[in-house]
Specification:
This protein is mostly beta strands. Helices cover 3% and strands 58% of the residues. The protein has 1 helix and 7 strands; from the N terminus they run H-E-E-E-E-E-E-E. The protein has a 6-stranded antiparallel barrel with strand order 1-2-4-7-6-5.
Length: 118
Amino acid sequence: MTTQSSAGSDMRHRITLQQPLLTPDGAGGYARTWQDVADMWAAIAPLAPNRPGLHRETLVDMHVQSHALYRFTLRYYPGITAAMRVLYGARLFNIRAVIDPDETKTTLQLLAEEGVAT
């Protein structure tokens, strides 16, 4: 007997979607803050770090920082864009792509990069 896992049963991680808010800083520029948009359940899977383009490292202040990509699978939610980010516990993930895998507006996949402050 084969047991097949559905995306819904794997959505056990509570995440918060956040969108940027730009407010004038009084000096002609803007300060970016983040506003919570929605709390939802998601499945989270790291993408293979040895695949080109899915993992990178940068040198910041003489320290190597790793930037891994993750796939978040969640129920369809309109309005999610690559300008948003995912908050998962104390971890931040910048969304790089929003994909409707079967074009039915049932689920979404967010490809997001951890470890990059924006």
